[in-house]
Amino acid sequence: MSESEFDVVIVGGGSTGTAVARDCALRGLKTLLLERDDIASATVGTCAGMISSGLKYRGEPDIMKMSSTEVVHLNRIARHIIMKNPIVVPLLDLNDVASDGEYIEAYSEHAEERDVPEMMFITPEATREIEPMIHPNIIAGVYYEEFFIDPFRLCLLQALDARKHGAKIKTYCEVIGFNIVRNEVQEVIFYNRITGTTEKVSAKIVVNAAGPWAHKIARICGAELDLRLNKGAHVILDRRVVNVGITSRAIDGRWIYLFPHENTTLLGTTALDTWEDPDTLVASFDEIEYLLKSIEIVIPSIREARIIRTMAGVRPLVPDWKVPEDKVTRGYQVVDHNNGLISFTGGKLVMCRHMAEAVTDLVCSKLGMHAICTTHKNPLPGNESDVDIESLSVEFGVAMHALERMRARRGTEILKILELTKDHPEWKTTICTCEPIIEAEMRYAIREEFPQTLNDLRRRLRLGTGPCQGTFCTYKAASILAEELDLEGDDFLVDILDFRAERWKGIRPSMRGEQLAQEELAQGMYSCVGNLDQSDVDYDLKPWEEGG
Ligand SMILES: Cc1cc2nc3c(=O)[nH]c(=O)nc-3n(C[C@H](O)[C@H](O)[C@H](O)COP(=O)(O)OP(=O)(O)OC[C@H]3O[C@@H](n4cnc5c(N)ncnc54)[C@H](O)[C@@H]3O)c2cc1C
């Protein structure tokens, strides 16, 4: 087979596409993944990262069982990027107690398998002791535990593992067409946004993992695909404002949550059927007010917290119509278009490995191959063993907190990063103080994890995602990136403004209260200190698009 011939070409580098690439590569298929932007740059990057027991979908016992089993698998293969989150449901009246009683049995059925305690009622005193911000008039609480994964790292690690097993991963390559002969896909045509060229490769099978754009890929391949697109928005608070996760009924009776997440807090989510282009969506004023109004029923002081940002994404749901959104199955479908293209609808982050296994089984059977799935057993990079942060902190003279955060991103890879500081002690400098990230990790990420821009670095490191939203780290990070990638002056400036524009998309809808002062400071830094007047540079252009 030549360099441009593949058994399988995957469109989309989100949780689904990267999981498929990994499974195909591990089974020995010659695999190419094409992503029009960066890995995890779309829906998966806007999700809460909860790999849940499927509690909300207790009407679908099969989905609950599958979710539970997938949590076990993920805890085996990606333990280093998973956190356990204790959750409390504050109950304000007897109706709540009656309705929440139904959940206890469904949740507890698979609790032992996931290594969490059964769900339990707790007294109001115990509830408020766990989280003093909860409303004083509660009559009881419910306690349970769920797991959370870093969605960006999961996708990246799946892509890196696929690459390690022979797959080609090409980011900034947008699929724009197919050559179809006698109703069979022969070639995939894509625009390489880095080189500015149109290229094509041959494919025996194409897997369409383009999330909320999957119907568009099907259409250009001469097939039809129906999706129910559903918008969800989150509000992000500047730090961990609660000790534990809070779930509660919103003003319309839907479930919403307030989750400590990394070093911030996520308040989410909304659910609105949408026909808008997912690329242009942002959280609306109404969505933010709906979430604040709903959560303040149980956390009355929530508006005192600073909102640093919002984020919005689109769920590519199975096309169940004439039912409310929360009655649409959270399962997935594998749709064989019988022309060489196979698409997904539905699914969730938690089941991406399962979705990949199902589609790779189908691909193998179509290619007449017999290869067994091993993705539930093989560890992802960094999950090979435990890491002793305390002794590393003493040995390398790097703060425990910085190492703890690094370990949560990288597991055993932390050792390779710290090795770099032996030749370059100056790389122990902290670049992003909110997260925190030291220079050695940034250089390692640039060398090993194929970022092209500051936004790509953000996804790999959580750069600029903390309380200051990049106000103090962007320049430092940009100069390191420019040095490593040999970027020219204009490219450097465009990248900074592009990063800023991407942050601004989520900051603008959230501008209120103390965030207004914070943004004033950020604008002042960019315009006065950095001399970056945005009108000077066309920040819609990526470096490689200039003149392209
Ligand atoms: C607000 C919100 C909260 C959520 N919370 C959770 C949660 O807590 N837990 C959970 O399990 N699930 C959650 N989900 C659902 C979950 O995020 C999605 O089901 C899942 O991430 C979808 O991943 P994906 O890879 O299919 O799609 P995406 O992440 O959208 O990936 C598709 C990729 O295809 C690429 N693409 C599109 N067109 C082309 C093209 N022409 N050429 C090349 N590439 C292309 C896109 O750039 C994109 O990167 C949530 C969803 C939302 C919106």
Explain the overall architecture.
- The protein is of the alpha+beta class.
- It folds into three domains: 5-43 and 152-227 and 329-366, FAD/NAD(P)-binding domain (3-Layer(bba) Sandwich), CATH 3.50.50; 85-145 and 228-322, D-Amino Acid Oxidase, subunit A, domain 2 (D-Amino Acid Oxidase, Chain A, domain 2), CATH 3.30.9.10; 389-545, no CATH class.
- The protein is 36% helix and 23% strand.
- The chain contains 17 helices and 20 strands.
- Strands 3, 4, 5, 6, 11, 12, 13, 14, 15 and 16 form a ten-stranded mixed sheet that branches.
- A hairpin with a 4-residue loop joins β9 (184-192) and β10 (197-208).
- α10 (389-396) packs across α11 (400-410) and α15 packs across α16 (489-507).
- The protein is globular and about 70 Å long.
- 49% of the residues are buried.
- Residues 536-548 have low confidence and may be disordered.
- The protein binds flavin-adenine dinucleotide.
Globular, elongated, flat, extended or rod-shaped: what is the shape? globular
Strand content: 15-25%
| Radius of gyration from CA coordinates | 23 Å
The poorly predicted ranges are 536-548
Largest sheet: 10 strands, mixed
Query: What structural category characterises the helix and strand content?
Result: alpha+beta
Mean pLDDT: 92
* Strand runs, count: 20
Q: What characteristics describe this protein?
A:
alpha+beta, FAD/NAD(P)-binding domain, D-Amino Acid Oxidase, Chain A, domain 2, 3 domains, 10-stranded mixed beta sheet, 17 helices
